[in-house]
Amino acid sequence: MRRRLTSVLIAVLTALPLVAAPVGTGRSDAAVYGALAAQWTRTHDGKQKYGGYSVKPDVPIRMSDGTVLRGNLIRPVGRDGKPVSTKLPTIVNMTPYTKMVSALASEVMNYPVLVPQLIDLLNGINLRGTVLSGYNELVGALRGGLIQTFAYDPQLIKSGYNMLVVDVRGTGFSQGTWQVFGDRERKDTVEVVDWAAKQRWSNGKIGMAGVSYSGINQLQAASDDPGKLGAIFPVVPGADLVRDIIAPGGGLGFGFLLPWLTLVNSSKMIPNIASMLNGTFDWKWLADRIKDPLTYFDVLIDALATRNVKDFAPKTRDMMTANSARRKSLFTDVNRVQTPTFAIGGWNDLFTNSESRLLSGLSQLPNAQKKLIMDDGYHITSSSNFGQKGHPPRIDVLARAWYDRWLKGIHNGIDRYSPATLASEPTGNFLQGDTYPLPGYTYQRQYLRGTPSRTVNTPVAGDGSLSSAKPTRRATREVKPGLSTLCDRDAAQAAAGVTILFDFCGKDTRLSEVAAQTFTGKPVSSLTRISGTPVVHLRQRLKATDGYWHATVNIVSPDGRSQIVSMGQLMVSLRGVDASKSTYAPNGDLTDPFLYLSLDHYSKVRPGQILDIDIPMSATQAALKPGDRLRVDLYSFNFPKSVPLGPGLWSSQLRPQYIEIDPANPSWVNVPLSKAIR
């Protein structure tokens, strides 16, 4: 009994999720949730072809360099309790979080009677309106199918699929040293797929599944060996990891990287107890762990402690230099993907940068073979409330329908589901369309002005206004570093959503704005939507040779609540924009600046120099209701999500920074709007 309770606790703690708000109607024949979705749900939840399944643990899979990876092979069984002899499609999941954890999570989530009752009990506790208002959002994903996708789905297996869950090289019970998406690790994924396709229990049709890390390597495998995979279903995946989480805007993604590296490096040291008891312990596994017990902590420390870019260690320098072999291994060219791809992302996810670009990036796939759902959740809360009225179907339901269509050839209508299904912030209402950004939106400048908006009813560093008209007077606004960003949506994003238990920070950024220069527009008179990536063009001045800017675009409701819908940051020394990879409006304005983020474009400034910069922001789908206002917040620090690299930290000395409002050279936020605003 104690083991079962421990397993339940592990599953709950590793999967806490966010409840989305009520949603609007869709326009496709599948709709957000319609007749076809109900059919897919019945197919998934009903009686399956096979009555059970068996797990063969720690199957050895030898790589081309001799390293042995270990995988759990899960197969459906017949009435005799033995694995069926029929060759079946196989779903591969490559995980760094140890397959032991995924096995526990899967078994617990499918424990009859107890777990459904527990989930209902947890979701029945209503803490909305209290200091723990985020509780209900956290537990919501327990019923959204995320856990089954993170681990394995017994219903899927019993319907006629094999499942192979493999520990990534250097993690779990696999040999080798952890590479964190290095070239050898990427080759491993391709080799495991090839191995699975050739086994006697496989019919050669291979799909992939998994969340986060296990979503990233799906995109990598589909890009590295185009056409080999039959279907992939990545949940919260990334494709450009440096821009996503390692160094967004040139700052080190400290808030996520430190706890994440600690988690994986700790879990990889857990030995295979069963092998110790039966005399088959893998001594090479132990030697490999001793060789590299703290993978990439040396890079993290070097990135923070080094005072001069010339003194970075080679590993750190490679990470921060464009076109280096290491940098290339952290990027996935999704234009090469030829595999039907259904992705789940989120506007508050760690990988929003990559997810929002997937539909346009998957250029070789027709709309029938590429789908993207962007909800308003965080990394561990994706799919919260999926399966509920007005929301998309559960993730496990969608995955089953996707695999059935492309691995079994069942024409179930999933290919007609809208290519883009988008939660509209801050309400969570879903919109659908063929592309993201949605068509019909035009970028419009909203200028920063020194004139007070007189709409701020809580302490801020400064109150300015936003307008479609240029400023008429010069003004200077001072921005001092502070720690108020501990309580905002960016901090919750960096924590993968764990901290949204205290949801007053994620849902209202007024506490954070105490350190911000705020610029607020006039209320809109009619519904106005945003679809795409805002850009903050800022005329600024530093007292030092480097500086760090953090910007947010917010929607302010009539009651004064300020909710972030887009966020970004920029290290001034890494401000260089690659024009060939950036996009521009017809008037020449940047609409999606692509930073080099490379040490060979590192450039300090002269103290006192006035300089224009462009801050890349995260993509969004949002709506201003009548009476809502648009706001831009500007900070000079963004702890804990991101901090300046060591050289930038020493150069900036955390001195105040200045916004220069100049009628001749104005600052603005460029926003993709459905209609013009004043």
Automatic annotation (TrEMBL):
<dbReference type="InterPro" id="IPR005674">
    <property type="entry name" value="CocE/Ser_esterase"/>
</dbReference>
<dbReference type="GO" id="GO:0008239">
    <property type="term" value="F:dipeptidyl-peptidase activity"/>
</dbReference>
<dbReference type="InterPro" id="IPR008979">
    <property type="entry name" value="Galactose-bd-like_sf"/>
</dbReference>
<dbReference type="InterPro" id="IPR000383">
    <property type="entry name" value="Xaa-Pro-like_dom"/>
</dbReference>
<dbReference type="InterPro" id="IPR013736">
    <property type="entry name" value="Xaa-Pro_dipept_C"/>
</dbReference>
<protein>
    <submittedName>
        <fullName>Peptidase S15</fullName>
    </submittedName>
</protein>
<dbReference type="InterPro" id="IPR029058">
    <property type="entry name" value="AB_hydrolase_fold"/>
</dbReference>
<feature type="region of interest" description="Disordered">
    <location>
        <begin position="452"/>
        <end position="474"/>
    </location>
</feature>
<dbReference type="Pfam" id="PF02129">
    <property type="entry name" value="Peptidase_S15"/>
</dbReference>
<keyword id="KW-0378">Hydrolase</keyword>
<feature type="signal peptide">
    <location>
        <begin position="1"/>
        <end position="20"/>
    </location>
</feature>
<feature type="domain" description="Xaa-Pro dipeptidyl-peptidase C-terminal">
    <location>
        <begin position="400"/>
        <end position="660"/>
    </location>
</feature>
<dbReference type="InterPro" id="IPR050585">
    <property type="entry name" value="Xaa-Pro_dipeptidyl-ppase/CocE"/>
</dbReference>
<dbReference type="Pfam" id="PF08530">
    <property type="entry name" value="PepX_C"/>
</dbReference>
<keyword id="KW-0732">Signal</keyword>
